[in-house]
Structures are given as structure tokens and as C-alpha cells.
Amino acid sequence: MSMGEQPLFEAVQDGNDETKDMEGVVEIQDTASANKVDDKSLRGEYTWVIEDWSQIKEPKKYSENFEIGTHLWRLLVCPQGMNAPGQLSVFLDSPEAAFAPANLNPTASFKLTIINQKTPGQGDYWKESSHKWSQTETDWGFSQCMLLAELHDPERGFIVNDTLKIKVEITVQRDERYYYDSRKETGYVGLKNQGATCYMNSLLQYLYHLPYFRKAVYHMPTSENDEPTTSLPLALQSLFYKLQYSRTPVSTKDLTKSFGWSTMDAFMQHDVQELNRVLCEKLEEKMKGTRVERVINELFEGHTLNYLECVAVDYKSSRRESFMDLQLDVKGCSDIYDSFDRYTQVEMMDGENQYKAEGYGLQDARKGVLFDQLPPVLQLQLKRFEYDFARDTMVKINDRYEFYDELDLDRGDGKYLSPQADRSVRNQYKLHSVLVHSGGVHGGHYYAYIRPDGKTWLKFDDTAVTIEDGSKALEEQFGGEDEPGGSPAGRLQGPVQEGEQQQQQPLAGTPLMPKQRLKFTKFSNAYMLVYVRLSDWPRYMAPVAKDGIAPYLLERLEAEQREKERRQKEKQEAHLYCHVRIATDADIAQQVGSSQWFDLVDYDQLPPSRTFRVRKLTRFSDFKQQVAAQLGVPEDAQRYWVWQQRQNKTYRPTSRLKPDEESAHIVDLREHREMGHTTAKHALMDLRLYLEIPWPPESPVQTPNRQEINLFFKYYDPQAESLKYVGHRYVLKSYKVCEIFPLMAKLAGLPLDTPLQAYEEVKWEPTVMICAIDPQFTLHQEAQLESGDIICFQKAVPDLPQAAAAAADDSSGLIKAAPESMDLDEEQQQQQTAQQAAQQQQDLQQQVQQQLAAAQNHPHAELLQCTFPRVPEFLSYIRSRRQVTFRRLEEPKEPGLQLELLREDSYDTVAAALAAKLGLPDPTHLRLTQHNAYSNMPQRTPMKFREKSSLQGMLQHAGHATDTLYYELLDMPLPQLEQLKSLRVHFHNDKTEFVGEHVVRLPRDACVGDVLAELGSRLGEEYKGRQLRLLEVYHSKIYKVGRDLLLLLPLEMVEFILNSDRGRQLRLLEVYHSKIYKVFEPSEEIANMDANYWLIRAEPVPPDEAVPLPPGHRLIHVYHNRSPKPDAAAAAAAAAAAANNNDAAAADGAAAPPATPANSGGGGFVSGSGGGGFVSGSGAAAGPLATFGDPFLLRIAPDETLGQVKARIQQKLGVAAAEFATWRAAFVSIRAAPEFLGDDEVLASRFAAADSQHAVAESNYLGLAHEDKGVRRPASSANRYTYERPVKIYN
User: Fold this and answer.
1) Where is the composition biased (Low complexity) (predicted)?
2) 445 is catalytic
């Protein structure tokens, strides 16, 4: 059903006062009462009854733990006083303050009372205090609470029947730094910042507080199968619902995931207006074909009338354009009305800028823009950023700019409105939102001031929501300068002195010179304003209740909200609970040999059924009932062990829970808690226990005694290369290791007489230590085994002959020939020594043969053929192995291939393994690049040959371990390549278009002259002596040109990209950010040329630009300047003007629209229309001047006009006439603002004479301003995998 048939909101009468009250007031009342903290939950009392008081001998006595105000407490009493003889000392203790983080430690006031048991409530003795408990102050109270003489006086009645009663009353005080409730204080909640999403948070808060827009979002159709992370409508619906009903700040992660954004996108700040346009365009697409199809247009769309009328003849032209927001000038405007005056300013087209009307010729004309229809919600972007020509960069305009609580666009008898505008609509607007940017052009912070009810201003700064005075939203966001002592917000670095007309205003304690005053620039100011028409306020700002949400959606959102509140409640009460994790033999058996190789169990991999969330005041006996119900283990069969971390960083179940511990509260077991964490998540209690039950289930129940130890057993099979857990057993300490071999064989399912070898697991880090155990050692005394130790055993493997290594090296038996000059005695002595060595070698070989024969007869001799015949070798391999992913450097996002390697593997081993996988015969033809752990992409610099000694070093980046490497296939060995200089040359054709890339490799110690000789020998006769001109380009500007440099391109490159340019000269340019930058002399070494930083560009030299040039001719630099996309009216009018000036027939006399911010977009060059295909004319340009694309050189003759030059440019670049008509040209100098030239002006007169035949970038160039339609390739100095990232919503 269309919006006209069934509107989202019914019309509201202006006289209805209830409907005029905005939604914010209603929400504050409802949500504040719903979220009000129950103060009773923060108060409580506890009475401690101490019996047998006179029998207490210990100096300190604690009460049991009790809970008040979501915190655990206990009382501490010192019967003989604490450093105060004759006094009773009483303290209130927080048992968890010693290890809890600061935000979880309590602050409370308390009252300690010694109860008079004879006259309760009348003769009591009490004292009060308050305190903030901390890790250093875990108890607080009174060391001199009461005289012991008074306490023991029978007449006073404090002790009756040897019983003392102490009562404590506690009131916990919340720390507002951690418990500020914006919903309670303001009725609204904020949005969490993901890193740099403050701009998005401000926009979302503004859109949410347009109830009509919010209700439209609620009615966008979604399905039950949609997920918020993939469905933009559902994500936005969920976000708005949470903003409306959640009690805590809302996350935007689901929304950004539905955008298709990655984590990196969340850390990239964008323009809030850009996101507003992109988001609304995407929502418009999603709303098509639904009942809310035209809501965005209904809210934000207005229309302007662009007109042109001749002064002396009856010729008029107009075009109606739509807009969703307006960009208003700030610079040169004192307030918002000045901006609207400039927006609708009439421009005269006369003199050289006359308009050529069809049938009338050149005529004086007026052109301008008026508003045909204004929208109900007026979005105004203030143009706070512009280009600084002197510094060649963008700057922020912090000038004072006033705007008002109400905006009257009917002022001046409707001077802003077109004659066709509906004058019955009162265009009186009320300020709704002010989006503020604080900072500079390179970064800053966004926040918003919003008035949901039209009365009260609220500041939305990410998660913080506060009520603010109206001056904060208006006057303090005007910008300008601030005096010392004024508002501290928005001050920039450094004072600025004003002239003598200002009065002196000295800082306190800092006298100033007379007639001087310091001021500070405020960098926080309004960037976007939102006004709502007063007559439409009741309709578009009417409250949205739950009945305004689609029923199926409401049910889903309410369920999600209940689940979120449940999780939040669990989080708030987390410090009252303990997570008890239980591991059994079945869990150990499941992990060992699959995910766990050393130790016994990884608690983080246990199934959820093994984790119990219990209150800390639960008795352990009650906990055992929960275990019995959930795991089916009877209470009397449960036997619990606690884990202990040993000095070698291993964990072992070393001792059982004592009977008194099993009867205590869970919190009393805090000495067994996991101490490895200090964060709030694990700070309070994470108890890990080993539950000993018969395993396998048919195993008998073991009853240990003090003479036994509990050992855990793993069995290793070398042939299967498997390790498995086979159980635990109690064995006598006095047993020898060989005496438990039958037990171990039985556990492994082996014959009882199987020869075994046993090893003890000692440590895993930094190196594996698995120690063999002598079978004749006693378990406890000699092998030093104790409860919790792990024995790995296997079938016995015969020992290799000890003499094998010596036999392998028989070099000692080789005798060198005696020199001819050697004496006879020396020769005889050497022969005797040789005979003795030969006999020793023969004896050694015989010994080896005997030992090998003995090994062959061993029952498990076949195990020697296994890859890892023994446990230590196998576990060392397990610890060293790494699963490494190799990806092609050109395809870093592809899955790649995987290899299993060892972290000790050398560079050569890794390269050889990869080459074998790829079928590459020579591993040196591979080049590897490390992984960047932060960007998740390759590092910019590849590894040198054998730069890293091991795989472990290759997989390290900034202290982070990775599992990815990238590879390239080279056409020559890497060591040889590293001795050469590689230059990547980009070739551009006659149209300056990028064609392809070619790699040229040269010796590193060569100079440019050597390059000429080397390339000349590789090219055919036809290309010898062809010129290459080398230029230095930077940011789309040519900085310097070499006239005498001759270079030759390789033949294969020329044949690929220059078939049509045979016999022509070529020139080589060095480019960085689209600017030709540097000259290379023939004697300069090429080692200084950074091909990764600069872009080397080659192009054919046009015949008319070949040196030497004719007298008076010169080459000028021509650069492209980025200009926003022109509107259709501007394009059509400029095309018509171009056609008229070229004597072409035009379909009608369409007029060029006025050069206002509406059609110029606020960027590029702004001037009148001079025909000839360019929107140009005399005068200075305003707006950004950002270069892009590929600059080029152009020859101009001494008497050539701009019109003639433009014709040659259009032909050179091959731009269509209709598109070229929207381009604008200017003479640009770095020392002054761009200046527009008429078509009949001689262009050479504008360029200063120079000694060379080329212009110099620092002096001047010809700028072409137009829309950037090209693919944005990364700069050569940038990471080759990063691109410019505009705001984009992918899903």
C-alpha cells in the first residue's frame, strides 16, 4: 500500500498540546521509572552470634561470609584488641578486595553495633564509619571499639551465657564513574565507538531522533531468516529499538557488519555528510516497492530552480533540480542568512562572459538559483574545509559563523523562493540537531547536540548522553576565537594577537602589554545543521510507541532485548558467582592425542556441560548435588582434586580437597582459584577441579592410602605415531618402575610381559624435556615421582650401537703419504701409528656388528624404522611443527596452499619444501614475504635471500606469531636478482592513458650512462638512439625536466605497447602522486632511484614536442584538478554553449546554470561561462585544487590562444565534446590563487620566461578541473594492496 493510501503517521492538530510534547519527555518518564535503581538492594544488615566467647584463644576471628549490596562481607573481631590492649577491635572485611579490580571494590558506609542482650535496642553500643575498600585496605573498622572491662561487665548485658552478638548495617554507595545511567538521567542512551566511528554515531543519533524516519525503518520488510550482520534493514531496526528501550549504550557492530565493513573500516574516519548520503541512498533502494518507499524523499527532498534570462531580449531558460541537503559557504559569511544570500546571488553574464542565446547571439544575461520547494527536514552542511593554495593542502575554516534557533526562509518577502513556489507553506524552521566537528583537517572527533522534544538540548558524545544548556549547542559552536577565561572547549594551540582597537583582557597572574589581548582559535564548531519546519513538526516528530512497530519485528526485537538484558545482568552480578570447571578422565582421554599433547587437559576446550556457574556463598556439598544431577555421578562417588602450577609452568592435580573444604562455602576455596588473570573477567573466582571417577566405567573404585601416589599414564605407539591417555592409578611409593610395567601394559591393552620404556613429562617450554626413567628406580625416592605426575610409556626400543657414529667416520684410519724429506725414524714411527689406528678401526667395526646383531634380535627391532621411534622425539616434533599457509603475493586474499614444517627449519628447507609443492626445480627462483599481523596483508618489503635463519623467525612480526607467508615466482635466482636494480616502468600512450607495466633490471652499481649502453645492446637497430625524457612528477605536478637524457626502452616492451609508434622518440618520467618530480643526469647512479617510492613513466614524444623546439615555443605543464561531479543542468548548458561557439546546431537555447554552491559542488574552479567547451572566464577561482591523474607536457606557440590550446587538448586526450564541455581551465601559480583566462587570450604571455624550454612546477601550470572518473590506483609509495577508501555500504 502506498504512503498516500496509508500514511505512517496520522495528521496531528496544532492545538493538541499533548501531541506537541515530544517523545523525549515521555521516554524520560517511562524509562527513568523502569530503570530506577532499587536502593533497598544496596542496604542490608547481618548479626553475628559468637558463642563460647571466653574460649576463643586465637588473636583474630572471622565470621562467615554474607552478601549485602551485591558484595561479599565478613566481620573480623580481635578479642584481645589490635595494637590496643584492653580494647575490643571490630572490623568490616571485604574478602575479595585483595584481588578484585578497582571498579568492583565496594564503597560503603556501615554501622557496627554491640547488642545489649538484656535491653535490646536501648543499651546497645555502636560506631559508624565509611570507606572505599581496595587491594591495600581490605578491612576497615575500629581498633578501639569498646573497653574490654565494659564488654565483660555482667551488669551491662553485652555477654550473656558466654555469647556475644555483633550487628552490622551496611549501605553500599555506587561509584558514578562506573555506574552513570544516562537512561535514568536523560531518558536516552549512547552508542559505542568501535575505534573511529564517532561520525557514524552522531549521524545515527540524529536519524533516530526523527521519529517519522525511525518508524519508516521499523516498517521495512525483513524475514525470519535474516540476520542483523547481513541485513541492513534488520540491523538498523535492531539498533533503533535498542536506542529506544535499552538501558545501556548500544553497540553498532552488527550494523557495520551489515555494511560489509571490516575491522579496518571501523578505524577509518569519514565525513558525516558523505555517510548520510550513502546510507540514505542504500535505504532508498531497500524501501522500493514497500509502503515506506517515498519516506526519505518526503522528509529530505527539496527542489531548486536554476534560471537564466537575457536582459535585452525575451529569452529565458530554467531547470528544476532536486536536492537532499545543501552546502553553505562559511568563509566570508557572518551567519546563516549570509550563506543563503550568497547561494541565491544573481550573477551577471556580460562583457567577455556574455551568453550566446539561440537566435539572438551574444547577450547580457542574469543567472541564479531559487528554491522552488523546501523540504520538511532541512539538512545543511557547512563548508568548513577548503584548499589553501599557499600550502597546497586542505585546511579547516574555524571562522565565527552564527546560526539561530529558528530559521525563516520566507524573509525578505520570499526572496529565496522562486515565483512558482507555494507561498501558502510557511517556511519557518526550528533547529533540531547540531553535528559538531572538533579537530582539524587530518582528524578529529564528532558529536551531536539534539533537541528531541524541541525544548531540552542533549549532547550525544558516543556512549555519554548529558543534558546541556542551549548556549552549548548554539553560541559555543559558532567557531571563531575565544578569550582566556572563556569556554575552554575548542581551543587550538597558540594565542593570536589582535590589534589596538581591542581592549586589554589580561590573564590572571600574567600581565599583557597595553592595548593587546590574546585570543585562541576554537577548533570545535558546527559542521552540519538540521532544521525541521514548525508546521510539520507535529507530523514528523510524533512519538513512536511499540504499536508503531510491525508485530513480527516487535516480537523478535523484544526477545533479543530480553536476552541482552539477561547477559547484562549476569555481567553485573558476575562478582557474586564463581565458575567451577570440572575435568574428568573422559575429558582427558578425548583431548590427549588430538588437541592436547603435553599435560592432561585444556579447560578452555571443555564442553559447556563441564562449567557450573554457582554463587560463591553456595556450600560445596550443595554444589556436589548439582554435579550429581548434571553428570550423573553420585555424591559419595565424587572425589575432587585441585591443580597446582609447578615451577616449570606445568599444571598437575596434586592434592585432594580436604573434608573441611568440602563442607565450606565455594568462596572459602579462593586459595585454589585460578590466579593467572588480573582482569575483571577472571579476577574474582575461576575454580578448576579434577573429578576423579572410575574410568573406564567398569574400572574398580580405588581407595588410596598415604603410602600411595596417584600417577597418570599415556601410551605412545611409534608405528601409528599416536599418543593416548589410558588412565590413572594409585601405586605404592616403594614400587620400582619395572614393577608397574604389567599394570601399564594392561592399561594399554598389551600383553603383560611386553618390554616397556617409561618417560616422565617434565616441561614443555622453552624446550621439551621428557626424561627416561630407570626401570630399577623406586617411584618416589629415586625417580622422585609424586601425585599428579605423568608417565609416558611405549614398547621398548633397542638402543642403537654406541660405536656407530665412530664407525661412520673412518678418517682416522687414513694415513697421509710421507714427504720425501722425512727422516727414516719419523717414517717408521708414522707407519707404526697407522698400524695401531687400523687395528682400532677394525675392533670398532666388529663391536658395531655385534651390537647391530643384538638389536636385530630385539622383539621390537622394527620400531627402529619408525620416523619417531621414541616419545621424546615424537613430542619434540609435535612442539616444533607448524602448519604454514603460502599465498601468492599477487593474490594475498586467496586461500593458498598449506605445508607442515618445523619451526627450526632453515630458510633453504622452507624454500625447498615450497618449491617441491609447486613443482619448481630451483628453490632460489622463489622470493618470500612475511605477513603483517596488524593489516592482515603482506609486508611491504620482501625477505632477502637467507635473511631469516629459521621458520620461527619468518613467522614473527612485531612480537606476534603468524602462520602465513607470501611467495613470488622469479625468472632468475634470488641471489642474482638482489645484485640487480629493478625498475618498474609504466607506459602511457599519446592520450596519457596507462597501458601496461614493464620491469627493467640493471646492475646496482650502474649509472644512467651504463643503462643506455645495456639497453642499446638489447634493442634492434631501429630503436637505437631513441630519446627518453626523464621527468620528476609529484602530486600531479611536473617539478623538473631533463633535456639531454637519452634512455632506451627494452624491445619486448616497445613491441607490446608501442607498435604504432615505431621510429618515434620516447621520454621517461618519474611520477609520485601524479606529479613529475625529478631529473636524472647521465652520470647519476641508478642505485639512488627508488622504484618502490616513485613511479617511472614512459611515453612517446609527440613530433611537435621533439627538442629542439622552434624559437619562442615552450613546453608547459598541464595537470588535472579534481572537481565534484557537475549536475546535469551545468553539463547540458556547457555543452550547448560549446556547440554554439563551434557553429553547431543546438536543440534548444538551454542556458548555463548559475555558478552557485548548488551546481558547482563547492569544489574545483567556479566562474562564469566563456564558451569553447570550458566553464571559464576572467577572475580568481575558489575551492579545492587537488591534483589527480596523469600530468603531461604540452607545447604552446608564442601567439597561440587558449581556445586553440583547448582544442588540441581535447584531441590529444580523446574526450567527448559533451564531457569536455564541463571541464574548466585556469592559469595556476603556487604563489597565487588560480586565474581564469579568456579563450582569446594568448596563453604564452601568462607563463614566465625560463632558461629551459620547460615550465617549472613551482612557478605555474595550466590546470584542468573536472570530475575524476578514472580508477584510483595506489601511489607507488603506498602499500600496493591499499587503495583510497570512500564511504561505501556493500550489502
Assistant:
1) 493-506
2) yes
